[in-house]
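Question:
Write out your own:
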Amino acid sequence: MGQELKLAEFKALYKTWKRNVDWFDQLLLGLLVWIEQKLTDNRVKTEVDEAIKEWETLHPVNTVSPVYTEKPSDTSTRLPEMRLTVSWYNDIYDEK
């Protein structure tokens, strides 16, 4: 797999800066490919982050803190009964 440029801007830069000296042209091509990859990665990361932020503003996530309860136990005199539940959970034992 050889090095090749994908974006038209970088292809135009390479054609303009090319000097027909093998070592210089290979160095230039390698540098332009590296810069192009970094630029493309940065663009993709930025676009994905912006799309995630936009989606989160349109679809807010409802985060509800869990509820901690403690009451005396029916079976033990020394240890209380402790529960950690969320608001959407309905326990059949809580409906007394």
